[in-house]
Hemoglobin (Nonomuraea jiangxiensis), 123 residues
Amino acid sequence: MGSYYEQVGAATVREVVDRFYVAVLADPELQPYFTDVDLPRLKRHMVMLLCSVLGGPEVYEGADLADAHRDMGVTGAHYEKVGSLLVAALREQGAGEDLVEHVVTVLGQVRGSIVAQPAGAAG
Ligand code: HEM
């Protein structure tokens, strides 16, 4: 049995990431975060990250997730929204539920690096 990456392939991951950012940018609450962002670069980094999370050979070369989202003030509610849009994009491209579950687990693991900590909180 192959990796999740072998189940879907890099082309599908690219399609997922394209559709994901279309959905993110269509959301009036999320759109303001992405003003002035180099979208092709962001997509390229998200594709690498997702491929490696799925067990592919790609090496993530973007910024550390905590550094990339520092001072952005990402709220928990916005994090859940973005996570749901990623899951929806995966399902739309035919990802199986085992793959989706794996991504949801990873989303839980990186949440603390992306969501802004309340002032005074450790870490
Ligand atoms: C759900 C999990 C998330 C993952 C896995 C993720 C992943 C990433 C990655 C890989 C980058 C690229 C870093 C780089 O280019 O070096 C990035 C950048 C960015 N993320 Fe996220 N992100 C997530 C959630 C969010 C949320 C919830 C928001 C805002 C609502 C957000 C807003 C941004 C913005 C605006 C950038 C661009 C930063 C810049 O290039 O200046 N992200 N993210």
About this structure: The domain at 4-114 is CATH 1.10.490.10 (Globin-like). The chain has a mean pLDDT of 95.
